[in-house]
Amino acid sequence: MIFLDIALFFFIGVVLIQVIYYLYVFGKFAFLKVENNKSSQKTPVSVIICAKNEGDNLKTFLPSILKQNYPDFQVVLINDGSKDDTLEVMKTFASSNPKIKVVDVKPVETFWGNKKYPLTLGIKASKHGLLLFTDADCQPVSEYWISEMVSKFSSEKSIVLGYGAYSKIKNSFLNKLIRFETLVTAISYFSFAKMGFAYMGVGRNMAYTKTQFFESKGFMGHMNIRSGDDDLFVNQSSTKTNTAICISKNSFTASPPKTSFKAWALQKRRHISTASYYKKEHKFALALFYITNVLFWLLSFLLLAISHLPQFVIGLIAFRISIQYLIYVGSTKKLGEKDVLWMLPFLEIFLITFQMAIFITNIISKPNHWK
């Protein structure tokens, strides 16, 4: 009986922490009013795309970048030692479009498998002060992508975080799981950024000024870490006031998702491995939410099975899930992912289990990075 009482009080504390996270932290994003960007700013921009063995993707997705409705932009295509026809594809596009600058980076043993080295050379070769980043397999959802992202820069804001979605595949559980994980991550980094506590961004859709890059000494603070050209840069460079978010639908990019659990697991292993290099306060805030999330479900099942107060336990579970749905309804409307809502509890449990397996696997063996 004493054990059950302790477990119940502990469960109440876990629910309270979860509710605080959802309402106080994630509510910053869920309840945020999306404003239509009407900025007249047309500052020249360099769009940076680093590609390694991406010839086919460039043929498919680069035209949507070149068709952007923006008066003055450059596209810097960085070939990172590709073994396919990536460089030839880049040169073909460049021969017919003066907006394109090709930077061919030869492999260097010291920086093998490290995307930060070619990115640094591409940034140095860019001619404009605003840098907008995406991947070779990404496609802006509208011709106003550049315009929308640039509108968030100001004298105070030198980093802009955007949303990089994954395309939908019908009748695919894996696709819903990938998009749910992307949604959860976006809600988190957008919310913390709104609080002046930005800890990451995604390279599929983010921007910063060249001045910010050099003031932060580029990637030097984590050049020895092969991953993290996006999230670790934001983690080290963001302040309480210099980071903005852009969540208008015209600012989104979309990428084809992985189609096998193995490929997705390898991708997530690379992404998750960088979290251990975040600032201590970021690691604490993220770990506390994840741990209480795990405990919420473990204690829910335990107390439902053996508690002498099942109705009270059910009430606490329903309360927490209701708050979660409230936050996710507002968030999915903004990010266009409403179809994952009906599977929310199941997707969450599966994702928690999957992430735990990734953490354990990364401890046992180091993941490969870049391509």
Question: Secondary-structure blueprint of this entry?
Answer:
Layout (H helix, E strand, L loop, with lengths): L1 H29 L14 E7 L3 H12 L6 E8 L5 H11 L3 E6 L10 H10 L4 E5 L4 E2 L4 H6 L8 E3 L2 E3 L6 H22 L11 E4 H6 L15 H7 L5 E3 L7 E3 L5 H13 L6 H27 L3 H26 L8 H21 L7
Parallel strand pairs: 1-2, 1-4, 2-3, 6-9, 7-10
Antiparallel strand pairs: 4-8, 5-10, 6-8
Helix pairs in contact: 1-6, 1-10, 1-11, 2-3, 6-12, 9-12, 10-11
Question: What share of residues are in beta strands?
Answer: 5-15%
Approximate shape: elongated
Number of strands: 10
Class computed from helices, strands and strand pairing: alpha/beta
If helices are DSSP runs of H or I spanning 4 or more residues, what is the number of helices?
12
Strand order of the biggest β-sheet: 3-2-1-4-8-6-9
- SSE series: HEHEHEHEEHEEHEHHEEHHHH
Oligomer: single chain
CATH topology of one domain: Spore Coat Polysaccharide Biosynthesis Protein SpsA, Chain A
The pLDDT mean sits at 92
* Distance N to C terminus: 55 Å
List segments where confidence is low: pLDDT < 50 over at least 5 consecutive residues: none
CATH superfamily of one domain: Spore Coat Polysaccharide Biosynthesis Protein SpsA, Chain A
**What composes the largest sheet?**
7 strands, mixed
CATH architecture term of one domain: Alpha-Beta Complex
Tell me the helix content. Answer: 40-55%
Protein name: Glycosyltransferase
EC number: 2.4.-.-
Keywords: Glycosyltransferase, Membrane, Transferase, Transmembrane, Transmembrane helix
Organism: Hyunsoonleella rubra
